Amino acid sequence: MFTGLVEEVGEVEAAGVSGGGFELSVKAGVVLDGVALGDSISVNGVCLTVTRFDPARFTVGLAPETLKRTNLGDLKPGDKVNLERAALPTTRLGGHYVQGHVDATGVISSFRPDGDALWLTVKTPPSLMRYIVSKGYIALDGASLTVVDVGDDWFNVTLIAYSQQKLALTTKRPGERVNLEVDILAKYVERLMSPAPQTQRLSREFLTTHGFTKEGASS
């Protein structure tokens, strides 16, 4: 689990097919403190397992489903990525519960300056919009952000000056994809509020249909 508080911006060193699979190597510093093989690191909001590392970089493998569902397959050497280590029991939850399981990708529609803040609008698959509400949370390339406005197929957030310096989002341009993970609590609420599956009740009609009784039979 993660909190959506990005610890550092890393730089892609290599990305591509290696040994029959797809590997991604990222230059980093902060997230390598205390790292071990098999640890989880969020890369642009995707929970990935460390397969190799040294003091200046780490390598992860990507499954075909990950490449299909996220923007990691778009990365090339030199690109910036948001990085966060998995949360510890002592971690302060300053963001929200982020699983690192991307739901879909959105497309950046626009950046709009507003003083020292920056408005970011994202075109979003309509199937996700029911989980996105004004003042609610969303993970955008792994960063926990608060939704401001919501439309039929878009939402926007504001990035304060500090966030602009600490996130890789500001290195992107309109038309580029971003990873989206909606608040898992919204999914749980939807599931709990959905009607339970109908179970067949034992009734006289059921017994008659299956030959256990006869219509009009006297006792």
Structure description:
- With 219 residues, the chain is mainly beta.
- The protein contains 4 helices and 13 strands.
- It has 2 domains: 78 residues, Elongation Factor Tu (Ef-tu), domain 3 (Beta Barrel); 89 residues, Elongation Factor Tu (Ef-tu), domain 3 (Beta Barrel).
- The protein is globular.
Count of structural domains: 2
Strand order of the largest sheet: 10-9-13-7-8-12-11
β-sheet strand percentage: 35-45%
Order of helices and strands: EEEEEHEEEEEEEHEHH
Mean pLDDT: 92
How far apart lie the N and C ends? 64 Å
CATH domain fold name of the largest domain: Elongation Factor Tu (Ef-tu), domain 3
Estimated helix fraction: 10-25%
Number of DSSP E strands: 13
Give unreliable regions as ranges: none
What does the overall shape look like?
Answer: globular
The CATH architecture of the largest domain can be named as Beta Barrel
Could you tell me the radius of gyration in angstroms? 23 Å
Question: Regarding CATH, which class of the largest domain?
Answer: Mainly Beta
Largest sheet: 7 strands, antiparallel
Structure at a glance:
This protein is mostly beta strands and 219 residues long.
